[in-house]
Design brief:
Number of helices: 13
Largest sheet: 8 strands, antiparallel
Shape: globular
Strand content: 25-35%
Helix content: 25-40%
Number of strands: 21
Distance between the termini: 66 Å
CATH class of the domain at 37-160: Mainly Beta
CATH topology of the domain at 37-160: Jelly Rolls
Length: about 500
């Protein structure tokens, strides 16, 4: 009986210890969070805290387990000012919070004109937040925190002037021929110029649903019958589909001629059953029975058109049986070409062999990104800690669309140019993450990853050593000439932080 009590007591002590230690002391957390080689400029500054209801721990910026504690006072604005004493160049601010109560925070730089200029704004801090600032030279900055929902602790604030680094960081761009008439774009000089500009710093293009050989429509009650294996192109069945694919594909190759951009093929895994409903069991049966034939013909197709590799995206596997089929498909295809896997974080069950042969894992973090920085950060932690994915192979997928409270999607292009009660998303500024959209006779609030947040996600990926970022279909973004194009947000960070881009 005593041993049982001892065991329960030990478990309780371990639980409390883990809770007290917090995320920042976990090994996996430390491995994920970047360590900057540059000097922490905050450590040399004169720091003044004012406003709100707070208490400062002894030397809280430089001492472990000492914090700036903020008490709940939603109407107050807490200010933390850093005076460097001389003009100082900086481009990055890192904040860590033990809690989630800090609301909106804004960073200001003191200008030569003697006024405070906003250089950053965001909602929430959380366990870790790295903020992308356009390069600035100033003698002091201040951070304002408002809309404080409860008692919380600011663990630290770090300020850096981060130098460019050598990196093989990749930027993936999805292009679906059905929504993008590439041949028509190529033949229009203005559209062609805009299209090519939008590919600045893109390293990989994924042509989605370009080829289909995964036709799984087996009549009910006939699972023993071999599924129909039907080649199709351009994502549609019908007369002329191959010629349409070739016209668009050749136009794409012409537009990117002279670049080092890789072109991937994402095959269309048709998961409809005999009645057109999603049927993962039927798909798994099909893969098991026709895998060798599929892979052989698929590899011929990839070689014929000069694709860099295959990007697999099967959205609906749930049972182990489905994943066994998927693992076989991935590992066997990798014998012929490079393979990447696009997948959600839920029910991810690629085995160790499939993980080893996969060049990159494009995590479907689109909706997570819209939910905010803290959730995005947690998603990557889950991928590393729970799924066992090496961070060097992880690609964060960034959305070019928004979602309303009912789950409806609105692409960013229409939000900028379509029915918007505020006129344009641009009128909300680069910090916007919500917009009012006119839908029928009603106005709905749409959440999205705006320009500044997209920059932050890109910076997080670079500094944490991830493989890259991925953008949803190019047709969803505003024209690249638009000041707050989300592709431009990604390109801006890549250009500013990676050498030779």
């Amino acid at each position: 009986m005593k041993s049982g009590k001892f065991f329960l007591k030990a478990v309780f002590v371990l639980f409390i210890t883990a809770s007290v230690i917090g995320l920042s002391s976990c090994t996996w957390f430390k491995e994920f969070v970047p360590e900057f080689d540059e000097e922490n400029l905050a450590a040399q500054a004169v720091v003044t805290v004012s406003g709100g209801n707070f208490s400062e721990g002894n030397d809280w910026l430089r001492k472990n387990n000492s914090y700036l504690t903020i008490n709940s006072l939603a109407s107050a604005v807490l200010e933390i000012e850093f005076d460097f004493g001389t003009e100082t160049e900086l481009n990055t601010v890192v904040l860590k919070e033990k809690g989630t109560a800090a609301g909106v925070f804004v960073i200001y730089a003191y200008s030569a004109l003697g006024v405070w200029e906003k250089v950053y704004q965001a909602d929430g801090i959380g366990a870790y937040r790295i903020c992308y600032l356009e390069a600035a030279a100033t003698d002091k900055i201040k951070i304002e925190i408002s809309e404080i929902s409860g008692k919380t602790k600011i663990e630290t604030v770090e300020i850096f002037d981060v130098e460019e680094k050598q990196s093989a960081f990749r930027v993936f761009q999805d292009i679906k021929f059905e929504g993008n008439n590439i041949l028509a774009i190529k033949n229009d000089p203005l559209k062609a110029a805009s299209f090519v500009s939008g590919l600045k710093n893109v390293t990989d293009i994924v042509v989605t649903n370009a080829y289909g050989y995964f036709h799984t429509q087996v009549p009910p009650g006939q699972r023993n019958r071999n599924p129909v294996a039907e080649e199709k192109y351009y994502g549609v069945r019908g007369t002329g589909e191959l010629s349409r694919f070739e016209n668009n594909f050749n136009a794409l190759k012409s537009l990117i001629d002279g670049t080092q951009i890789n072109i991937w093929c994402r095959p269309d895994i048709d998961q409809g059953d005999y009645y057109g409903a999603i049927n993962a069991v039927s798909t798994a049966e099909f893969i098991y029975r026709t895998k060798d034939d599929v892979i052989t013909k698929f590899s011929v197709f990839l070689t014929k058109y000069g694709f860099y590799g295959a990007d697999f995206y099967w959205d609906y596997p749930s049972h182990l049986y489905h994943w066994r089929a998927y693992n076989q498909l991935v590992t066997d295809t990798a014998e012929y070409t490079k393979v990447s896997v696009t997948s959600s974080l839920n029910e991810f069950r690629l085995d160790s062999k499939a993980k080893a042969v996969t060049e990159s894992f494009r995590l479907l973090t689109h909706d997570t990104a819209i939910n905010g920085y803290a959730e995005m950060f947690a998603a990557v932690q889950k991928a590393i800690r729970s799924l066992g994915l090496p961070k060097e192979k992880i690609v964060l997928s960034l959305p070019l669309y928004g979602i309303d409270d009912g789950g409806a999607h609105y692409d960013y292009a229409s939000m900028v140019t379509g029915n918007n009660t505020d006129g344009y998303v641009g009128s909300l500024g680069k910090w916007a993450n919500t917009a009012l959209i006119t839908a029928g006779e009603a106005s709905v609030s749409v959440n999205f990853s705006g320009f500044a947040l997209t920059r932050d996600y890109t910076l997080l990926s670079i500094e944490c050593g991830l493989f890259g970022v991925s953008l949803s279909d190019v047709a969803f973004d505003a024209p690249y000439e638009y000041e707050y194009s989300l592709r431009k947000a990604v390109s801006e960070v890549v250009s500013g932080r990676i050498k030779n881009t």
